[in-house]
Design a protein that fits this description.
Layout (H helix, E strand, L loop, with lengths): L1 H20 L7 E7 L7 H9 L1 H4 L2 E7 L2 H10 L4 E2 L2 H9 L5 E3 L11 E3 L1
Helix pairs in contact: 4-5
Length: 117
């Protein structure tokens, strides 16, 4: 649970810093990401969205459900900022796609791998 909260806060912090650097602090930054399945593994994100924690940080967060193949295509096309489908993203990366896989901890604790452009 600690790791999931840490990742959620890290996402908020990363996007908040990026927003401030771009000079659009105060404007709501839109963030779209996908989860492969709606499970308790993402409960921290459901709660953060429901309670408005992202909104309090100037973020408009949209979480969508998309499997690995579709999510990775959307990620490469720029339709998503993050995806939890690290396996598909890694496969695409090995074929030349410009994506990054971070926190590759599939079988270690509650950390969830994320992929991004």
């Amino acid at each position: 649970m600690f790791t999931s909260r840490f990742l959620a806060l890290a996402l908020i912090g990363f996007v908040s810093v990026a927003t401030a650097i771009d000079g659009v602090a105060g404007a709501e930054e839109k963030v779209r990401f996908s989860v492969a399945a709606v499970t308790g593994s993402y409960m921290d994100e459901f709660v953060a969205i429901e309670k408005g924690y992202h909104r309090d940080e100037g973020l408009s967060v949209e979480m969508i459900r998309a499997g690995g193949g579709i999510a990775t295509q959307a990620l490469i096309a720029g339709d998503l900022h993050f995806s939890t489908s690290a396996g598909s993203a890694l496969s695409a990366m090995l074929r030349g796609a410009e994506v990054k896989v971070i926190v590759p901890a599939i079988n270690y604790g509650r950390a969830s791998p994320r992929s991004e452009l």
